[in-house]
Protein backbone atom coordinates (compact mmCIF):
# COMPACT_ATOMS: atom_id res chain seq x y z
CA UNK A 1 0.00 0.00 0.00
CA UNK A 2 1.23 3.51 -0.80
CA UNK A 3 2.97 5.08 2.21
CA UNK A 4 1.13 8.37 1.63
CA UNK A 5 -2.22 6.56 1.80
CA UNK A 6 -1.18 4.84 5.04
CA UNK A 7 -0.26 8.22 6.54
CA UNK A 8 -3.65 9.67 5.56
CA UNK A 9 -5.46 6.70 7.16
CA UNK A 10 -3.39 7.01 10.38
CA UNK A 11 -4.11 10.72 10.62
CA UNK A 12 -7.79 9.91 10.17
CA UNK A 13 -7.76 7.39 13.04
CA UNK A 14 -5.92 9.86 15.30
CA UNK A 15 -8.42 12.61 14.47
CA UNK A 16 -11.39 10.32 15.17
CA UNK A 17 -9.90 9.21 18.51
CA UNK A 18 -9.28 12.81 19.53
CA UNK A 19 -12.86 13.73 18.63
CA UNK A 20 -14.21 10.86 20.78
CA UNK A 21 -12.10 11.86 23.77
CA UNK A 22 -13.15 15.49 23.44
CA UNK A 23 -16.82 14.51 23.15
CA UNK A 24 -16.59 12.38 26.29
CA UNK A 25 -14.84 15.08 28.27
CA UNK A 26 -17.33 17.83 27.51
CA UNK A 27 -20.56 15.82 27.27
CA UNK A 28 -20.31 12.54 29.17
CA UNK A 29 -17.85 13.57 31.86
CA UNK A 30 -20.20 14.64 34.66
CA UNK A 31 -17.39 16.61 36.37
CA UNK A 32 -17.53 19.05 33.47
CA UNK A 33 -21.09 18.69 32.24
CA UNK A 34 -22.84 18.56 35.62
CA UNK A 35 -20.24 20.57 37.55
CA UNK A 36 -19.90 17.77 40.10
CA UNK A 37 -16.40 18.86 41.11
CA UNK A 38 -17.85 22.09 42.50
CA UNK A 39 -20.74 20.28 44.13
CA UNK A 40 -18.52 17.60 45.68
CA UNK A 41 -16.15 20.24 47.10
CA UNK A 42 -18.78 20.99 49.77
CA UNK A 43 -19.07 17.39 50.95
CA UNK A 44 -16.42 17.36 53.69
CA UNK A 45 -16.92 20.98 54.89
CA UNK A 46 -20.66 20.33 55.31
CA UNK A 47 -20.00 17.17 57.27
CA UNK A 48 -17.62 19.09 59.54
CA UNK A 49 -20.25 21.82 60.06
CA UNK A 50 -23.23 19.50 60.59
CA UNK A 51 -23.84 20.93 64.07
CA UNK A 52 -23.55 24.57 63.01
CA UNK A 53 -26.76 25.76 61.28
CA UNK A 54 -25.28 29.13 60.26
CA UNK A 55 -22.35 27.53 58.42
CA UNK A 56 -24.57 24.91 56.81
CA UNK A 57 -27.01 27.50 55.54
CA UNK A 58 -24.19 29.60 54.06
CA UNK A 59 -22.71 26.53 52.35
CA UNK A 60 -26.08 25.56 50.92
CA UNK A 61 -26.45 29.07 49.49
CA UNK A 62 -22.99 28.92 47.89
CA UNK A 63 -23.65 25.44 46.54
CA UNK A 64 -26.95 26.51 45.01
CA UNK A 65 -25.13 29.33 43.19
CA UNK A 66 -22.86 26.81 41.49
CA UNK A 67 -19.77 27.99 43.36
CA UNK A 68 -16.88 25.89 44.64
CA UNK A 69 -15.63 25.53 48.20
CA UNK A 70 -12.21 27.02 47.47
CA UNK A 71 -10.27 30.01 48.75
CA UNK A 72 -9.80 31.43 45.28
CA UNK A 73 -13.59 31.86 45.05
CA UNK A 74 -13.55 34.00 48.20
CA UNK A 75 -10.63 36.02 46.84
CA UNK A 76 -12.35 36.53 43.49
CA UNK A 77 -15.55 37.63 45.20
CA UNK A 78 -13.61 40.28 47.14
CA UNK A 79 -11.74 41.47 44.05
CA UNK A 80 -15.02 41.72 42.12
CA UNK A 81 -16.65 43.63 45.01
CA UNK A 82 -19.21 40.86 45.40
CA UNK A 83 -19.27 41.24 49.16
CA UNK A 84 -22.52 39.29 49.53
CA UNK A 85 -20.73 36.21 48.18
CA UNK A 86 -17.68 36.93 50.32
CA UNK A 87 -19.93 37.13 53.40
CA UNK A 88 -21.37 33.70 52.65
CA UNK A 89 -17.88 32.19 52.52
CA UNK A 90 -16.92 33.86 55.79
CA UNK A 91 -20.20 32.81 57.45
CA UNK A 92 -19.48 29.28 56.24
CA UNK A 93 -16.18 29.32 58.13
CA UNK A 94 -13.65 30.02 55.39
CA UNK A 95 -10.60 32.08 56.40
CA UNK A 96 -9.01 34.77 54.25
CA UNK A 97 -5.60 33.52 53.11
CA UNK A 98 -4.43 36.47 51.00
CA UNK A 99 -4.17 39.37 53.49
CA UNK A 100 -2.95 41.57 50.63
CA UNK A 101 -6.59 41.85 49.55
CA UNK A 102 -7.26 44.06 52.58
CA UNK A 103 -4.85 46.78 51.45
CA UNK A 104 -5.77 46.01 47.86
CA UNK A 105 -9.42 46.83 48.47
CA UNK A 106 -8.45 49.99 50.36
CA UNK A 107 -6.79 51.10 47.14
CA UNK A 108 -9.35 49.83 44.63
CA UNK A 109 -12.61 50.22 46.52
CA UNK A 110 -12.16 52.62 49.45
CA UNK A 111 -15.90 53.33 49.56
CA UNK A 112 -16.76 49.72 50.40
CA UNK A 113 -13.67 49.03 52.49
CA UNK A 114 -15.27 49.53 55.90
CA UNK A 115 -18.06 47.08 55.01
CA UNK A 116 -15.47 44.52 53.88
CA UNK A 117 -13.57 44.76 57.17
CA UNK A 118 -16.76 43.95 59.09
CA UNK A 119 -17.55 41.02 56.79
CA UNK A 120 -14.04 39.59 57.25
CA UNK A 121 -14.19 40.19 61.01
CA UNK A 122 -10.92 42.15 61.00
CA UNK A 123 -12.27 45.55 62.09
CA UNK A 124 -10.08 45.66 65.18
CA UNK A 125 -6.68 47.04 66.15
CA UNK A 126 -4.86 43.71 66.17
CA UNK A 127 -5.88 42.63 62.67
CA UNK A 128 -5.38 46.09 61.18
CA UNK A 129 -1.94 46.72 62.67
CA UNK A 130 0.28 44.36 60.71
CA UNK A 131 2.17 44.76 57.45
CA UNK A 132 0.29 43.88 54.28
CA UNK A 133 1.81 42.78 50.99
CA UNK A 134 0.72 45.11 48.21
CA UNK A 135 -0.19 43.05 45.12
CA UNK A 136 1.98 43.83 42.11
CA UNK A 137 -0.99 44.43 39.80
CA UNK A 138 -1.97 47.53 41.78
CA UNK A 139 -0.28 50.74 40.68
CA UNK A 140 -1.62 53.44 43.01
CA UNK A 141 1.48 53.32 45.22
CA UNK A 142 4.04 52.64 42.49
CA UNK A 143 5.37 56.21 42.44
CA UNK A 144 6.24 55.97 46.14
CA UNK A 145 7.85 52.56 45.76
CA UNK A 146 9.87 54.03 42.89
CA UNK A 147 11.15 56.74 45.24
CA UNK A 148 12.36 54.06 47.64
CA UNK A 149 13.92 52.17 44.74
CA UNK A 150 15.89 55.25 43.63
CA UNK A 151 16.99 55.92 47.21
CA UNK A 152 18.38 52.38 47.39
CA UNK A 153 19.91 52.44 43.92
CA UNK A 154 22.16 55.47 44.58
CA UNK A 155 24.34 53.88 47.32
CA UNK A 156 24.14 50.55 45.50
CA UNK A 157 25.67 52.16 42.39
CA UNK A 158 28.37 53.81 44.51
CA UNK A 159 29.19 50.50 46.20
CA UNK A 160 29.51 48.86 42.79
CA UNK A 161 31.85 51.61 41.53
CA UNK A 162 34.10 51.22 44.58
CA UNK A 163 34.07 47.46 44.20
CA UNK A 164 34.94 47.76 40.51
CA UNK A 165 37.90 50.06 41.27
CA UNK A 166 39.27 47.39 43.61
CA UNK A 167 38.69 44.77 40.95
CA UNK A 168 40.64 46.82 38.37
CA UNK A 169 43.61 46.98 40.74
CA UNK A 170 43.57 43.19 41.14
CA UNK A 171 43.16 42.72 37.40
CA UNK A 172 46.13 44.99 36.69
CA UNK A 173 48.32 42.96 39.03
CA UNK A 174 47.23 39.82 37.16
CA UNK A 175 48.09 41.45 33.81
CA UNK A 176 51.51 42.62 35.08
CA UNK A 177 52.36 39.15 36.40
CA UNK A 178 51.34 37.49 33.14
CA UNK A 179 53.30 39.99 31.04
CA UNK A 180 56.34 39.44 33.26
CA UNK A 181 56.17 35.69 32.69
CA UNK A 182 55.85 36.19 28.92
CA UNK A 183 58.83 38.58 28.98
CA UNK A 184 60.89 35.88 30.72
CA UNK A 185 59.97 33.43 27.94
CA UNK A 186 60.93 35.97 25.25
CA UNK A 187 64.29 36.42 26.95
CA UNK A 188 64.80 32.69 27.35
CA UNK A 189 63.86 31.93 23.72
CA UNK A 190 66.13 34.72 22.43
CA UNK A 191 64.06 35.27 19.27
CA UNK A 192 63.45 31.58 18.57
CA UNK A 193 59.90 31.67 17.17
CA UNK A 194 59.32 27.96 17.73
CA UNK A 195 60.32 28.30 21.37
CA UNK A 196 57.98 31.28 21.79
CA UNK A 197 55.10 29.52 19.98
CA UNK A 198 55.37 26.55 22.33
CA UNK A 199 55.74 28.38 25.68
CA UNK A 200 53.68 31.60 25.42
CA UNK A 201 50.29 29.91 24.78
CA UNK A 202 50.90 27.67 27.79
CA UNK A 203 51.43 30.76 29.97
CA UNK A 204 48.28 32.36 28.52
CA UNK A 205 46.20 29.30 29.36
CA UNK A 206 47.64 28.97 32.86
CA UNK A 207 47.05 32.64 33.72
CA UNK A 208 43.56 32.70 32.22
CA UNK A 209 42.61 30.08 34.79
CA UNK A 210 43.53 32.61 37.49
CA UNK A 211 41.97 35.63 35.80
CA UNK A 212 39.99 37.70 38.32
CA UNK A 213 36.25 37.76 37.72
CA UNK A 214 34.71 41.25 37.38
CA UNK A 215 31.80 42.16 39.65
CA UNK A 216 28.31 42.16 38.19
CA UNK A 217 25.98 45.09 38.73
CA UNK A 218 22.43 44.16 39.64
CA UNK A 219 19.45 45.74 37.94
CA UNK A 220 17.70 47.35 40.87
CA UNK A 221 13.89 47.15 40.81
CA UNK A 222 11.49 47.16 43.75
CA UNK A 223 9.83 43.76 44.07
CA UNK A 224 7.77 43.03 47.18
CA UNK A 225 6.37 45.93 49.23
CA UNK A 226 4.91 45.39 52.68
CA UNK A 227 3.12 48.38 54.16
CA UNK A 228 0.93 49.20 57.13
CA UNK A 229 -2.63 50.26 56.41
CA UNK A 230 -2.00 53.65 58.02
CA UNK A 231 1.06 54.24 55.83
CA UNK A 232 -0.95 53.35 52.72
CA UNK A 233 -3.80 55.65 53.76
CA UNK A 234 -1.38 58.52 54.42
CA UNK A 235 0.27 58.09 51.02
CA UNK A 236 -3.10 57.87 49.27
CA UNK A 237 -4.55 60.80 51.23
CA UNK A 238 -7.70 58.94 52.33
CA UNK A 239 -8.62 61.07 55.34
CA UNK A 240 -11.73 59.04 56.22
CA UNK A 241 -9.63 55.87 56.40
CA UNK A 242 -6.95 57.67 58.42
CA UNK A 243 -9.63 58.83 60.92
CA UNK A 244 -11.09 55.31 61.09
CA UNK A 245 -7.71 53.71 61.80
CA UNK A 246 -6.92 56.30 64.46
CA UNK A 247 -10.24 55.52 66.16
CA UNK A 248 -9.22 51.86 66.21
CA UNK A 249 -5.85 52.76 67.74
CA UNK A 250 -3.91 51.81 64.60
CA UNK A 251 -0.74 53.83 63.98
CA UNK A 252 1.77 54.08 61.18
CA UNK A 253 4.72 51.71 61.55
CA UNK A 254 7.90 50.78 59.74
CA UNK A 255 7.30 49.42 56.26
CA UNK A 256 9.67 47.45 54.06
CA UNK A 257 10.33 46.71 50.40
CA UNK A 258 12.35 43.80 49.06
CA UNK A 259 14.52 44.75 46.09
CA UNK A 260 15.53 42.68 43.07
CA UNK A 261 18.94 41.94 44.62
CA UNK A 262 17.13 40.67 47.77
CA UNK A 263 18.13 43.80 49.68
CA UNK A 264 15.52 45.08 52.13
CA UNK A 265 14.72 48.78 52.59
CA UNK A 266 12.90 49.90 55.72
CA UNK A 267 10.95 53.14 55.54
CA UNK A 268 8.26 55.03 57.39
CA UNK A 269 5.60 57.53 56.36
CA UNK A 270 4.94 60.72 58.30
CA UNK A 271 1.48 62.20 58.92
CA UNK A 272 2.17 64.51 55.97
CA UNK A 273 2.89 61.55 53.70
CA UNK A 274 6.66 62.05 53.62
CA UNK A 275 8.87 58.96 53.34
CA UNK A 276 11.99 58.67 55.51
CA UNK A 277 14.53 55.94 56.30
CA UNK A 278 15.06 55.69 60.09
CA UNK A 279 17.45 52.73 59.78
CA UNK A 280 19.41 54.20 56.88
CA UNK A 281 20.13 52.26 53.69
CA UNK A 282 22.17 49.06 53.74
CA UNK A 283 22.99 47.64 50.31
CA UNK A 284 24.01 44.12 49.39
CA UNK A 285 27.54 43.52 48.16
CA UNK A 286 27.89 43.50 44.34
CA UNK A 287 27.89 40.05 42.81
CA UNK A 288 30.93 38.53 41.19
CA UNK A 289 30.51 37.68 37.53
CA UNK A 290 30.48 34.05 36.41
CA UNK A 291 33.50 32.56 34.65
CA UNK A 292 33.00 31.23 31.16
CA UNK A 293 33.54 27.51 30.82
CA UNK A 294 36.90 26.42 29.47
CA UNK A 295 40.19 28.30 29.11
CA UNK A 296 40.11 31.90 27.91
CA UNK A 297 42.75 33.63 25.85
CA UNK A 298 43.45 37.31 25.28
Number of helices: 14
- β-strand amount: 5-15%
List the uncertain runs. 26-34, 291-298
Strand order of the largest sheet: 1-3-4-5-6
What structural class should be given to the helix and strand makeup?
A: alpha+beta
Mean residue pLDDT: 84
- The radius of gyration over CA amounts to 32 Å
Give me the strand/helix succession: HHHHHHHHHHEHHEEHHEEEE
Percent of residues in helices comes to 55-70%
- Total beta strands: 7
Query: What distance lies between the first and last C-alpha atoms, to the nearest angstrom?
Result: 63 Å
Sheet bearing the most strands, described? Answer: 5 strands, antiparallel
**Basic shape:** elongated
Q: Could you give a quick summary of the protein structure above?
A:
This protein is an alpha+beta fold.
List keywords for this structure.
298 residues; 14 helices; disordered C terminus; 9% strand; alpha+beta; single chain; five-stranded antiparallel sheet; 7 strands; two-stranded antiparallel sheet
Describe the protein's architecture and organization.
This protein has 298 residues and is of the alpha+beta class. Among the domains are: 9-37; 38-131, no CATH class; 156-213, no CATH class. It has 14 helices and 7 strands. It has helices at 3-28, 30-33, 36-40, 43-48, 53-64, 71-79, 83-91, 100-108, 113-120, 125-128, 142-189, 193-208, 229-236, 239-247, and strands at residues 131-133, 215-216, 222-228, 255-259, 264-269, 275-276, 287-288. Strands 1-3-4-5-6 form a 5-stranded antiparallel beta sheet. It has a two-stranded antiparallel ribbon with strand order 2-7. A hairpin with a 5-residue loop joins strand 5 (264-269) and strand 6. Helix 7 (83-91) runs parallel beside helix 9 and helix 13 (229-236) packs antiparallel against helix 14 (239-247). The longest helix is centred in the middle third of the chain and has 48 residues, at 142-189.
Amino acid sequence: MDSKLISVILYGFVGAALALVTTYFFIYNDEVYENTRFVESFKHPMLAAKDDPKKLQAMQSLKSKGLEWATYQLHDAIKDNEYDIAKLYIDAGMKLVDKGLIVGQMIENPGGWFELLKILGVDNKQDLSGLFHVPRYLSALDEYFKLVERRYEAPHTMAFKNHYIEYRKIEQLWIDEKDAEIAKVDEMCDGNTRCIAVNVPAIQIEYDKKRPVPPKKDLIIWQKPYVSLMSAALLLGHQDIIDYLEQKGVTSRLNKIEMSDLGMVVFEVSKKGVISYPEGITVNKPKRGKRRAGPQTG
